[in-house]
């Protein structure tokens, strides 16, 4: 029995070691080197194009990209030649987007519709170009988008309306129940029975008010946002 336990432990350790080693080898294969401009020389500065890892790219780097390259950060295009980019990782749409550096976008243009900006996580389908890295890591658009997913959404107008009307009806119910308890106590002089009668009235009013709350809120929304003809 002890031999079987030791053999199973050794097999488990060998499997975990093999899987971790395979994962490390795969991570080495999927690394996408990035071509960046670098200056070399102490006396005479010579501009070189070198390949570095994506993790070593910082804002201010000028990168060169070709078909199949992934953008290591949010990039402002400096030059482009028939550049087509896939933004499926951001939009979920399968179609591609043409990007060009020879354009000045308006401030009212939606962020994902900017044609002179390429975002981290997108890839080059065809064409080539160069660009200035403006943000990396947690400051990119993709990172901020993912960080906002788990945040609680603020209440909308309908939820605010339901909440306000609920408070008003609860206040009215409390006033009515208080009056009923006082009137019943003055007539019967039994405080316990009057309180129990008031609690029973409050319990009966609560489910009856729910349709009123919902219908009032829906009527308010219909009044504020009337339907328009297409």
Automatic annotation (TrEMBL):
Signal peptide residue numbers: 1-18
Keywords: Signal
GO cellular component: plasma membrane
InterPro entries in UniProt: ATPase_P-typ_TM_dom_sf, ATPase_P-typ_transduc_dom_A_sf, ATPase_P-type_domA, Cation_transp_ATPase_P-type
GO biological process, one term: intracellular sodium ion homeostasis
Domain P-type ATPase A positions: 42-146
GO molecular function: P-type sodium:potassium-exchanging transporter activity
PANTHER family in the record: P-TYPE ATPASE, SODIUM/POTASSIUM-TRANSPORTING ATPASE SUBUNIT ALPHA
Protein name: P-type ATPase A domain-containing protein
Origin species: Rubus argutus
Lineage: Eukaryota, Viridiplantae, Streptophyta, Embryophyta, Tracheophyta
């Amino acid at each position: 029995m002890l031999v079987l336990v030791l053999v199973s432990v050794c097999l488990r350790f060998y499997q975990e070691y093999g899987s971790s080693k395979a994962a490390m080898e795969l991570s080495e294969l999927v690394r996408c080197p990035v071509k960046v401009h670098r200056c070399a020389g102490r006396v005479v500065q010579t501009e070189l194009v070198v390949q570095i890892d994506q993790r070593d790219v910082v804002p201010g780097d000028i990168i060169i990209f070709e078909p199949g390259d992934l953008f290591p950060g949010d990039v402002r295009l400096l030059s482009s030649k028939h550049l087509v980019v896939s933004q499926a990782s951001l939009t979920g749409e399968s179609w591609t987007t043409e990007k060009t550096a020879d354009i000045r976008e308006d401030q009212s243009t939606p962020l994902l519709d900017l044609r002179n900006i390429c975002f981290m996580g997108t890839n080059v389908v065809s064409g080539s170009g160069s660009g200035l890295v403006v943000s990396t890591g947690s400051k990119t658009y993709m990172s901020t988008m993912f960080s906002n997913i788990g945040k609680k959404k603020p209440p909308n107008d309908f939820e605010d309306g339901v909440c306000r009307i609920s408070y008003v009806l609860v206040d009215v119910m409390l006033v009515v129940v208080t009056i009923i308890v006082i009137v019943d106590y003055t007539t019967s002089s039994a405080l316990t029975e009057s309180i129990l009668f008031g609690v029973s009235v409050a319990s009966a009013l609560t489910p009856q008010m729910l349709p009123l709350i919902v219908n009032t809120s829906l009527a308010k929304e219909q009044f504020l946002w009337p339907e328009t003809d297409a």
